[in-house]
Design the sequence.
């Protein structure tokens, strides 16, 4: 395929296919790739990812506008934060127009602090990318400075941090810069480049910022952890509906968002993921095989039909009771009160645990009181490897919310995951699952 054909195919994908992906169609597809300047970019690879793009004082800041567009092309939501020096090279209005979000520049901005100040932005981000990262800002990062908005966000965030250096080749080669970069890498910061080539000052050498397409490709890699590579993971999600008559049923307020986020995070971690879902209005995550069910009985049958998963994560909110008898015709309203006889639905999690074999089983507990106590009882009673508990009701998140907080417990241990977007929380939970899964296997094989 020649370069002209590649450009034509790329344009077709961007203009015609991408809009369908983001309009809620459930496309069960392998991944569609296109080539941009020699780099393979996976369409929608950053869907639902929140990227905070920091722009610092370098002539390479003009590339940031293109970087915003490329990140959004592959599904990311982009929040731009600029240093004062960056504004000498590109205007906030330009990047605000492209990102569709207000650009933040000042640490002491009363309006921003009232809505999404440095702490809110630090918590919001799934990934922080500094592109371009000047020699000055790199030094300030290494020193742990927090005297402007961008450096304060970097210091306050637990999100992964990636920097794309852009500076004169001699500044890059300077021992002080190299020491600062080495310190950042040692702390876990991802270094994106720099590239080698001609520079704006006329010099030739290392120090050029990577091209936007290259940075996008590197950003996608940040979410491909591989911690569950080769594992077969079964996730249950959403509510179940237990029929009363042809028009009514018993159910609950579960949206399925947490379970779907977990399935997506497991796929990003390299697992082969099957998602068994009750009735929800959510799109199937990329690289996830989905089975739709309605009732607890159907969900149990689907779970039992799945052969030998390595990990089961039971995030579904299964109805505990169902009508003892289902009316074949609509029950008509009558004078006085009505009674409904109920029986217990199958206990899917207990059934899984009883027949677990070598499976690693993760349960969920939604509680309105005594969260940790009730979760530990469930952990022990059902012989689970791990349980994730969360508050529901009121303003505590859980059902009908895009955010949640989890108390993750295991035998003789546990950790608190603070309030965060469910997509971000799911990735943190998958890291814990992978760690405990590896620890269990290491113990059994020793």
Sequence:
């Amino acid at each position: 395929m020649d370069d002209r054909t590649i450009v034509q195919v790329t344009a077709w994908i961007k203009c015609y296919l991408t809009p369908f992906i983001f309009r809620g169609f459930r496309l069960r597809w392998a991944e569609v790739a296109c080539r941009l300047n020699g780099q393979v970019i996976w369409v929608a690879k950053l869907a639902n990812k929140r990227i905070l793009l920091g722009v610092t004082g370098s002539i390479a800041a003009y590339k940031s506008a293109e970087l915003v567009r490329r990140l959004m092309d592959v599904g990311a939501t982009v929040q731009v934060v600029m240093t004062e020096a960056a504004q000498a090279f590109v205007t906030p209005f330009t990047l605000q127009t492209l990102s569709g979000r207000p650009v933040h520049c000042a640490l002491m901005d009363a309006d921003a602090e009232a809505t999404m100040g440095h702490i809110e932005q630090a918590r919001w981000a799934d990934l922080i990318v500094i592109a371009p990262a000047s020699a000055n800002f790199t030094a300030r990062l290494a020193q742990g400075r927090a005297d402007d908005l961008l450096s304060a966000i970097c210091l306050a965030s637990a999100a992964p941090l990636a920097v794309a250096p852009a500076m004169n080749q001699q500044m890059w080669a300077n021992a002080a810069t190299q020491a600062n970069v080495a310190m950042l890498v040692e702390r876990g910061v991802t270094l994106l480049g720099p590239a080698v080539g001609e520079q704006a000052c006329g010099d030739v050498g290392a120090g050029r910022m990577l091209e936007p397409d290259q940075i996008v490709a590197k950003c996608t890699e940040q979410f491909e952890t591989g911690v569950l590579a080769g594992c077969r993971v079964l996730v249950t999600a959403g509510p179940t509906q237990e029929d009363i008559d042809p028009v009514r049923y018993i159910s609950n307020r579960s949206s399925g968002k947490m379970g779907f986020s977990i399935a997506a995070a497991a796929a990003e971690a390299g697992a082969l993921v099957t998602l068994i879902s009750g009735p929800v209005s959510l799109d199937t995550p990329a690289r996830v095989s989905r089975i739709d069910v309605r009732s607890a009985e159907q969900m149990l049958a689907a779970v039992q039909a799945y052969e030998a998963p390595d990990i089961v994560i039971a995030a579904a909110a299964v109805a505990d009771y169902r009508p003892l008898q289902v009316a074949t015709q609509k029950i008509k309203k009558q004078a006085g009160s009505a009674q409904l006889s109920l029986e217990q639905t199958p206990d899917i999690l207990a059934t899984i645990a009883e027949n677990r074999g070598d499976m690693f089983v993760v349960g969920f507990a939604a509680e309105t009181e005594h969260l940790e106590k009730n979760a530990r009882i469930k952990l022990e009673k059902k012989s689970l490897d791990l349980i994730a508990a969360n508050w529901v009701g009121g303003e505590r998140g859980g059902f009908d919310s895009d955010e949640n907080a989890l108390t993750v417990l295991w035998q003789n241990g546990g950790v608190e995951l603070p309030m965060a977007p469910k997509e971000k929380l799911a990735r943190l939970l998958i890291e814990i699952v992978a760690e405990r899964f590896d620890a269990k296997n290491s113990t059994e094989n020793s």
Notes: The two ends are 52 Å apart (CA to CA). Confidence is low (pLDDT under 50) at residues 1-43. The domain at 232-322+340-440 is CATH 3.40.50.10300 (Rossmann fold). Residues 123 and 147 are 19 Å apart (CA to CA).
